Amino acid sequence: MKVINIINFKLRSMAMTLLLSFAIALFGNATQVLAHGGEEHGDEKPKTATTTAGTISHTTRLGDFEIMFKHSPLEPDAATTGRLFITRFATNEPVGDANPTIEIESATGLVTEIPVEKTDAVESYVARIPALPEGTYTVRTKAVAAGGKTNTATFSGVEIARQEAAAETGGSWTQTALMVMLSLVALVLFGGLAYSALRVLKNKPLGEETVSA
User: Fold this and answer.
1) What's the CATH number where 96 sits?
2) pLDDT digits (tens, 9 = 90+) for 33-51
3) Which domain holds residue 192?
4) 143 pairs with which residues across the strands?
């Protein structure tokens, strides 16, 4: 009986350890996905993020540079301004001589130049976005690297839409659904963990004095 109890205790302890490790790994990966949009910093695809204040930022690596293009939500037929930031990818040092240009292309292929003006900050530029019709656009940012080579960063899927409708798009819905799903999984995992812990406590190995008695 003592041997059987010891085996049961070890098996349950192993199950608890595996369950806890799985839970930690699951939430670690989920946190990275929500924080980074599922994309890594570096030579991977450009990433787009929206702050709690509603500011939209597009970031990517462009040769030796890192490009960030920030703007408020774009509405149809309304001009606005954005900010372009250019830094050295390796050192994060500001770049003041990249001579950037920006253009935005509609789904029909119509290309519109976006005027770019230097600001007092070395790495910062003002982009004056003109009034454009509702639709999905592609933004291209060009910057001149050392040696005169021009590199182009492309941000696709830039939406110009009424904000009431944009609030109902799939991005926020997907994040909400993911959070609900993770919460349900967490309840199941930790419920199972608690149940296993109780079973271990109820079935812990008998002591020597109990067996001899």
Assistant:
1) 2.60.40.2480
2) 444 333 333 345 688 998 8
3) 2-36+173-212
4) 151
